Amino acid sequence: MPNTLRSVSIVGTGSYLPKKVLTNADLVRMVDTTDEWITSRTGIRERRIAATDECTSDLGAEAVRRALENADVPSSKVDLILCATITPDMHFPCTAALIQHKIGAPHIACFDIEAACSGFIYGIEIGRQFIMSRTCNTVVVVAAEKLSSIVDWKDRNTCVLFGDGAGAAVLQHSSASHGIMASSLGGDGAHGELLCVPGGGARLPASVATVNSGQHYLKMMGKEIYKHAMKSMQQAVTEALQRAGMKIDDITCIIPHQANMRIIEGLAERLEVPMERFYVNLHRYGNMSAASAAVALDESAREGRFKRGDIILTVAFGAGLTWGANVVKW
Ligand code: UT7
């Protein structure tokens, strides 16, 4: 077989959201907040919360089943599972392996991507590289998060922002006329402390003291993160478009990370794109980290926000710091 690069398409998507809905009114009964503060500062109205016995791998496996069904690809055809998550079921083994077992795809390669909110965008590009190089024919990229398991439900600064969910995409070789055209990925570890879970890792192993001082909860310097978000996402979009040889006006639908409505509006302003071209679902789900862009991609595709041949763009930003964008001809 000639060793030429192949083009790669997203041939199916799926998502799964847990049933339990936690509204802003519910949060008002839990912490010192108001519906007005949450909606005006973030745009979020409700989020989903996984059941106690529902793990990240359960959410992810269901999203993968739905994506495979949408692509009409049996699990026996999958060569590689990539799982983007910051809330793995356990430190190890990787959640991708647990999903592999749950969907019944034995012996195939699997690993996790820890790029926080940008994880799905990273995953799409990593999966594309495996297929382009002919190492794999079918790659599943799944982004699954049970953020409710690391949120401090007494901290109003963070607990109103996050939710649980999962989204997945099936990648396969495509005809040269459509597929993933280009990506831009970036990171800046100098700001790692702005958004992290400080305890439970090698630096601060779990102890009675770390648990008592809440070091296993997600900590975020919201204002600082906010400043970096806009700049990094604009940079990712510009670079990805340049690599794809496209202009922002060529894009039918922009699927951004769903952290904050004000960030999305700010990005729209910087890119000089009307808000109608952005897909937004954060009012229903809040910030689901890596799963946000994955669920938004699935929902926007199923709602018919773009059709075959349209150019779409995903973009995200998050802990690490990490950021990225994919340009895709659907
Ligand atoms: O997904 C990864 C990337 N993450 C992000 O992109 C998140 C980026 N950051 C943000 O979206 C925003 O910074 C937040 C939504 C997190 C916060 O909005 P903000 O406008 O930056 O608010 P703030 O943190 O400056 O807080 C303003 C005030 C503070 O009170 P004082 O100090 O001014 O008296 C907070 O204590 O709002 C207070 N506050 C709240 N009040 C009612 C913070 N959380 C709440 C709350 N309800 N839930």
SSE layout and pairing:
Elements (H helix, E strand, L loop, with lengths): L7 E9 L3 E4 H5 L6 H8 L3 E4 L6 H16 L8 E5 L10 H9 L5 E5 L5 H14 L5 E9 L9 H4 L4 E10 L5 E9 L7 E2 L11 H5 L6 E2 L1 H23 L6 E6 L4 H11 L10 H4 L4 H13 L8 E8 L3 E8 L1
Parallel strand pairs: 4-5, 4-6, 11-12
Antiparallel strand pairs: 1-7, 2-3, 6-7, 8-13, 9-10, 12-13
Helix pairs in contact: 3-4, 8-9
The structure holds oxa(dethia)-CoA.
Structure commentary:
Helices cover 34% and strands 25% of the residues. It is α/β, with parallel strands linked by helices. It has two domains: 168 residues, Peroxisomal Thiolase, Chain A, domain 1; 144 residues, Thiolase/Chalcone synthase (Peroxisomal Thiolase, Chain A, domain 1, 3-Layer(aba) Sandwich). α4 links the parallel β4 and β5. It is globular. 48% of the residues are buried. Bound molecules: oxa(dethia)-CoA.
Short summary:
This protein is an alpha/beta fold.
Shape: globular
CATH class category name of the largest domain: Alpha Beta
Determine the CATH topology of the largest domain. Answer: Peroxisomal Thiolase, Chain A, domain 1
CATH superfamily of the largest domain: Thiolase/Chalcone synthase
Small molecules bound in the structure, each named once: oxa(dethia)-CoA
Largest sheet: 5 strands, mixed
Q: What is the H/E order?
A: EEHHEHEHEHEHEEEHEHEHHHEE
Helical residue percent band: 25-40%
Number of helices: 11
Coarse structural class: alpha/beta
Number of strands: 13
Mean pLDDT: 96
What distance lies between the first and last C-alpha atoms, to the nearest angstrom?
A: 27 Å
